[in-house]
Amino acid sequence: MLPILFLIPLLLSTTSHASVQDFCVADTTASDTPAGFPCKPEANVTSSDFVYTGLSVPGKIIDLINAAVTPAFVTQFPGLNGLGLSALRLDLGPGGVVPLHSHPGATELLIVKSGHITAGFVSSANSVYIATVKTGELMIFPQGLLHFQVAAGKKGAVAFAFFSSPNPGLQILDFALFASNFSTPLIAKTTFLDPELIKKLKGVLGGSG
Predict the structure, then answer these.
(1) Sequential DSSP letters for 144-194
(2) What confidence category does residue 47 fall into, taking pLDDT thresholds of 50, 70 and 90?
(3) What is the dihedral of CA 154, 158, 162, 163, to 10 degrees?
(4) Could you tell me the pLDDT band of residue 209, with boundaries at 50, 70 and 90?
(5) Which residue ranges does the record assign to the Cupin type-1 domain (predicted)?
(6) Helix, strand, coil % (nearest 5) of the chain?
(7) Which whole-number Å values give the CA distances from 106 to 11, 41, 162, 165, 195, in the listed order?
(8) Rounded to two decimals, what is the model's pTM?
């Protein structure tokens, strides 16, 4: 007991003198690193660094998917740096879709603001989990797994997503295959898709090879 009682003041003393940083507003003029952006000098930090208004209005709809995705990641909202979260706004027109994609660096929590969204993800065991999420409801997409969102019914929908990282990353499967210079023969070999179909999809999405 006496050794334990002796250690308590020592631990308290060590904790009280530990360096604790409340925040690290990103200096986005520098390069991002695996540990995040370097901190902006605290003397230059203002209240506006902790407020972001970019999700207050609908995003610009992309015709191909009839949807808009407006991010509030660390590059748009530097106050998120080092805090382990970020957000985005999703505007879906009627029939709008966010194609199969993944976020390598974060789990996603989707909250539907208006309308209905059919969404789902594919597990590592190739099990598919799909649900139609209504206004006020939430759905979770585990980190790194392929998932999608589609406006359900004849109306559009609006949702907000929150991520467990200030920079969750994004890779859209269709764009990785058909908007890149990934060669058609290799795509055909690795996906079993018909080469003519691959060429057609590359023509739509702007890929080459």
Answers:
(1) T--EEEEE-SSS-EEEEEEESSSS---EEHHHHHHSS---HHHHHHHH---
(2) very high
(3) 50
(4) confident
(5) 53-199
(6) 25, 30, 50
(7) 34, 27, 9, 5, 34
(8) 0.85
Is 147 annotated as ligand-binding? yes
**What are the start-end ranges of the E strands in 29-178?**
67-72, 86-92, 97-102, 108-114, 117-122, 128-133, 138-141, 147-151, 157-163, 171-172
Q: What average pLDDT does the structure give for the chain?
A: 91
Question: Does 101 count as an annotated binding residue?
Answer: yes
147-151 and 138-141: which strand pairing?
unpaired
Whole-angstrom distance, CA of residue 138 vs CA of residue 133 = 7
Q: How confident is the model at residue 33, as a pLDDT?
A: 83
Structural domains in the chain, sorted by start: 42-169 (2.60.120.10), 176-205 (no CATH)
15 pLDDT tier (thresholds 50, 70, 90): very low
State the virtual CA torsion across 181, 166, 144, 203 in degrees, nearest 10: -20
Rounded distance between C-alpha atoms, residue 169 and residue 145, angstroms: 12
Question: Which of 18, 90, 93, 104 is closest to 63 using CA atoms?
Answer: 93
Q: Position of tokens 């909202």?
A: 77
Strand 147-151: give its sheet, edge to edge.
128-133, 117-122, 147-151, 97-102, 171-172
Distance CA 36, CA 82 (A): 6
